[in-house]
Amino acid sequence: MKAIQLQETSGIDALSYEEVPRPEPEENELVIRAHAAGVNPLDWLICRGVLPHLRDTELPWTPGWDVSGIVEAVGSGVSEFATGDAVCGMARLPGGGGAYAEYITVTTDEITAKPSSLSHLEAAGMPMAGQTAFHALYEAGNLSQGQDVLVHAAAGGVGHMAVQFAANTGAHVVGTASERNEAFLRDIGVDEFVNYRKEQFEDEVNEVDLVVDTVGGDVLERSVKIARP
Ligand SMILES: NC(=O)c1ccc[n+]([C@@H]2O[C@H](COP(=O)([O-])OP(=O)(O)OC[C@H]3O[C@@H](n4cnc5c(N)ncnc54)[C@H](OP(=O)(O)O)[C@@H]3O)[C@@H](O)[C@H]2O)c1
Q1: Less crowded by CB within 10 Å, the N or C end of the chain?
Q2: What is the pLDDT confidence band of residue 207, given thresholds at 50, 70 and 90?
Q3: End-to-end alpha-carbon separation of the chain, Å?
């Protein structure tokens, strides 16, 4: 099969299109024929060797965690999925990867049925950003209906997932982004919009119960000032 492989951790120029062996499923694994793979900041951070805990990964290495595709083969211990199922998910993190390829092995707890309302392209963009947003809002943030949440970089990969989750929970959602993203954000559930390029969010927003910040630096420090104790 074909795979995009990293030859050395020097950046995306070290990616090349290679012929590699097609994977076979272990007992509790399945093989997905990839229709689409997601690209996240983690991919280039690892390709450039910025994240040291993955530097030891054997090279050449196939990047990519987010995948959407069709189940091609299942291991003998797999009963939840069958050949031909449309699935999406995120493979083994940290380590692993392998989504930039025609076929990838995953375990059953790493995938779910692909929502029929989403294309493979859309579904492959969802897992990592969606899990990050979900963790921030509900596992770390305990968000509940009626609370006020400020989402920075609201039109970004994590941000636009956080906006939709929070709006669906019935929270009051404030989003920061550039002007060009205002209509998009209002459409997906932002109640209040702040153009961070022109306005200081702390001047525009009252206290909030929760802040989702994927920007960091002074944005984090300024956010603490408007977070309810
Ligand atoms: N994607 C993931 O799955 C994931 C998972 C875990 C962690 N992370 C981390 O989260 C961070 C963001 O990742 P992402 O994928 O969500 O990014 P992204 O899709 O690249 O979005 C980044 C956005 O940040 C916005 N931005 C920049 N400066 C800002 C500021 N001062 N205030 C408000 N918004 C600002 C810009 O929005 P405008 O275009 O509107 O100007 C930009 O489009 C990265 O550090 C990444 O490593 C990402």
Answers
A1: C
A2: very high
A3: 54
